Amino acid sequence: MQPSGDRMSERKHLKLGNLITGAGHTWTEWRHPKASPGASTDFQFYKKRAQTLERGKFDFAFIADSVSINEKSSPHYLNRFEPVTILSALAAVTQKIGLVATITVSYTEPYNLARQIASLDHISGGRAGWNVVTSWLEGSAANYGKSEHLAHDVRYRLAAEFVDVVKGLWDSWEDDAFVYDKRSGVFFDPSKLNTLNHKGEFLSVKGPLNIARSPQGQAVIFQAGASDDGRSFAAKHADAIFVGTDVVEEARAYYADVKARAAGFGRDPDKLFILPSASPIVGGTEAEAEALWRERAELASIDSALSMLGRGFDDHDFSVYDLDAPFPDVFDRGFNSTQSLVVKVHEAVKAENLTLRQVAQRFSTPKSVFTGAPEQVADRLQQWFETRAADGFILIESLPGQIEAFVDQVVPVLQKRDLFKADYEGTTFRENLGLDVPANRFTVQKASRAVA
Asked: 304: Cβ–Cβ under 8 A, 6 or more apart, which residues?
């Protein structure tokens, strides 16, 4: 399959990242004979993975997070690093790859978050990204002394204000504010230090931030918006969007919708990257890949499938129901958490009258559409890219060794087809994504006043 069509004439390359999960993405991978169950807090595992990704010219490494667990949480959630901490360590053992940290706006302060990400950006030489989440698990509130979790729509209003405040704090210092003139004794130019003085619906933040603007101006913003509120938020504020679908028609519809929303906000849609998740299973042949998938599916039990399903319904306990009875009417529990998953389950149950067992099995270990020999996996990635279902992908390792297999076997195919870069094109995350450095808002304001 060769590059074709108007999309490829633009000579754009796929963007690739990896969501690093030490003990596996679901409840079952840690049981594999080659898996290391303690990898989620093993720095050597993360170091090896990040360096493997960089060898494969991946655009970024992505660290997910949550701030609430219980006995039914997945193994990786139960015992893992705080994102900025592990990424700061990885910054010292990598050179070019972007480093994306998940941090919730619901349970942190803008000033703290702005300092953390700005520090990571300086430590890494301009390679930081921030995945903006609003936290969807009700149990999160109790860990932060809150009586209740914010409603879905309120969380997105908070997120919009929060992101604007953080970006304003990142602009506290103009790019040439620090003079460092030893002869005159001038350390910085006071006229280029700016105080935000924000007072809004949810937040009151004075500023300024006590760290200079980073080499890339501001960190790259990620978001995973699937609901209507989430789509609008991502289209307006994000540089990249993490999408959880493996159905190409759904991906195309989402792509068209969010790109149109971005244009409606006055943005260049080509400066917003839509990145579905993908869990490739790469075998030497198609038959070998099929055998690997069966190997993975056999690790799952009905108990683990119920736990995985319950996570999307705010950790609801599905074990109390009859497995072979119609799926219980518990959808209200999920609409304030992961709406996208709950809607999919609701639609499937309504259309097919599925039992609880059928739903759990379908949504726990579905077979990846990116399963096959290296050329076949590359064909499917290319199809999604060329037909405007994706600008790239966030890969999730399906079995131990699969990321290495992708780097060694699929990446060369993509590079040969000129679908993926042969090397990094810059030093900062923004440069490698082809994103401009955002103008400092205070510099722009001052220039506008000078012209007026």
From this structure: 26, 27, 28, 364
Instruction: Tell whether 295 is covered by a domain.
Output: no
| Tokens coding 156 | 């997105």
Number of domains in the chain: 2
Whether 124 and 259 map to the same domain: the answer is yes
Instruction: Decide: 379 and 248 in contact? Cβ < 8 Å.
Output: no
CA distances from 327 to 167, 168, 249 (A): 44, 47, 26
Residue 58 in domain: yes
Residue 17: helix, strand or coil by DSSP?
strand
Same domain, residue pair 439 and 399: yes
322: which 2 tokens?
Answer: 């009859």
Reading the block at residue 2, the tokens are 């060769």
For residue 229, give the CATH number of its domain. Answer: 3.20.20.30
Amino acid at 376: Q
Beta carbons of 126 and 216 less than 8 angstroms apart: yes
Specify the pTM: 0.87
Residue 106 gets which letter from DSSP?
T
Tokens of 84: 């900025």
The answer to whether residues 343 and 372 belong to one domain is no
Query: Can you tell me the distance from the alpha carbon of 25 to that of 357, in angstroms, rounded to the nearest whole number?
Result: 21
Nearest alpha-carbon partner for 28 in 319, 351, 375, 399? 399
pLDDT digit string (tens) for 331-344? 776 555 556 667 77
- Is residue 349 within 8 A of residue 294, CB to CB? The reply is no
- Enter the tokens of residue 305: 């499938």
What range does the domain containing 424 cover?
Answer: 5-290+367-451
Number of Cα atoms under 13 Å in the Cβ half of residue 88: 13
pLDDT, one tens digit per residue, over 127-151 is: 999 999 987 677 888 888 887 888 8
